[in-house]
Specification:
Elements lengths: L8 H5 L8 H15 L5 E2 L11 H13 L14 H15 L8 E4 L1 H13 L5 E6 L4 H8 L3 E6 L8 H7 L4 E7 L11 H16 L6 E5 L22 E6 L12 E5 L6 H14 L7 H10 L10 H16 L12 E2 L5 H7 L3 H11 L2 E2 L1 E2 L9 E4 L4 H14 L7
Parallel strand pairs: 1-10, 3-4, 3-5, 5-6, 6-7
Antiparallel strand pairs: 2-8, 7-8, 9-12, 11-12
Helix pairs in contact: 3-10, 5-9, 11-14, 12-13
Length: 411
């Protein structure tokens, strides 16, 4: 039994929450099932890239270790190596048409580290963080960590932005709007038109406020897109923006934790943010992003072979569409990212109501196929399927889906 009086309210609300990281629980269940038996486990739970990093990255790491001058593993400025930040600034400026400079970029311990320092830098306790739903559940924990509250606004049926719904959800305490595109869990990519509408609304609302609304553009999947899609950015349509990304996915380096935050050059208070974000990096315990990972980025990004074959994720998505639809799932095709977010067949909703996604996930787990119930993401009639698995796992998982989907009741 845990004595909750020994830990913080944040820990009680987060780590001891019954729904805390259903994704991780499924992932750990998969590890246990593999230890207990040699039978296949089809783990579609965690967005854990199965593709190995590109050989150009491994070669760069080996070369750096063999040829590095003394001092390459010592402390650097909390914002990161200047030449790496300049490289990222130039790259993002070319991508988005926004004149980033070195000082705008802070290298971080993944996109999660960037979210943590950004929220700590601009949000006060008792303020609110607004996000479209379905949403990445860790946003709730990020909000609690700064004493804030997460508020959700629905998206449309196809998971596109519903800007009027977002506006209705804005209150006196709203401080931040999180924009996650390509989206986890839905695979939606917000269009330039949607983001332009959002930018106009936020500019109008902020003009009447003492403290403007900030946008945290959370884009760790921006280089994993399908059908030739090109993610738009709110940077083109609104001034108060911190752009956040990582290379966990496109380089297959989730365990190495390298990301960055980039402050919009048009953001009022830009100079102060350039000082405060690195300070937050230090005092939150990250100190700085890993030196070796920082140094590898200019040697890899944009080079031939400098990305994993993200087409594998699109092929897996396509492999699911027709079989799931034939089983009665409502499937909105993913346009990018690592996930598919189908709605479970109607008989499951009729039988289990808002526990439908959880019930289906449990039945699949009994057949060694792991997905995450959609309630974790604010949509209890859905499940989330990770696409970053070998194609053979897709085939095995579909066999389990066919076995259970038509029978919402009974063994």
């Amino acid at each position: 039994m845990v004595d909750e009086n020994t830990i913080s309210r944040w820990a009680v609300a987060g780590a001891l929450d019954a729904k805390d990281s259903a994704t991780r629980k499924m992932f750990e269940l998969g590890l246990r099932l593999r230890r207990e038996s040699d039978a296949p486990v089809y783990d579609l739970s965690l967005g854990n890239p199965h593709l190995e990093p590109p050989s150009i990255w491994r070669d760069a790491i080996v070369t750096m270790l063999q040829t590095e001058p003394p001092g390459q593993h010592r402390y650097m400025p909390n914002a990161g190596f200047g030449y790496v930040r300049a490289f990222i600034a130039e790259r993002e400026a070319a991508r988005f048409g926004v004149p980033f400079i070195e000082a705008d970029v802070i290298m971080t311990v993944g996109a999660a580290g960037a979210m943590a320092i950004a929220l700590r830098s601009i949000v006060d306790p008792d303020e609110e963080i607004l996000a479209p739903s379905p949403f990445f559940p860790d946003y709730e924990h990020y909000a609690r960590a700064v004493g804030a509250k997460l508020v959700l606004a629905p998206t449309r049926a196809d998971f596109s932005l519903d800007v009027p719904a977002l506006e209705r959800a804005i209150g006196d305490r709203t401080r931040v709007v999180v924009v996650n595109s390509p989206n986890n869990p839905t695979g939606a990519i917000y269009t330039d038109g949607e983001l332009a509408e959002l930018g106009r609304m936020l500019a109008r609302v902020s003009a009447a406020r003492a403290r403007p609304l900030y946008v945290l553009e959370d884009s760790p999947y921006r280089d994993i897109v399908f059908d030739g899609s090109k993610p738009a950015s709110i940077l083109a349509h609104y001034d108060h923006v911190i752009h956040i990304s990582s290379h966990s996915k496109d380089l297959g380096l989730a365990g190495e934790r390298i990301g960055f935050a980039a402050i919009s050059p048009r953001a009022p208070g830009r100079a102060l943010l350039q000082r405060v974000l690195p300070f937050a990096n230090r005092v939150l315990g990250f100190v700085s992003a890993p030196a070796l990972m920082q140094r590898s980025l200019p040697l890899v990004l944009g080079k031939p072979g400098g990305r994993v074959d993200t087409g594998a994720y699109e092929r897996n998505a396509r492999a699911f569409y027709e079989p799931l639809a034939a089983l009665g799932f409502a499937v909105t095709p993913a346009r990018g990212g690592l996930f598919l977010f189908p709605q479970v067949p109607a008989p499951w909703v009729d039988a289990f109501g808002d526990a439908a996604g959880e019930a289906l996930a449990q039945r699949l787990a009994e057949r060694r196929t792991l997905v995450v119930p959609g309630g974790t993401f604010g949509s209890p009639h859905h499940i989330r399927i990770a696409l970053c698995v070998p194609s053979t796992d897709v085939e095995g998982a579909l066999a389990a889906f066919r076995d259970v989907a038509a029978r919402p009741k009974g063994p």
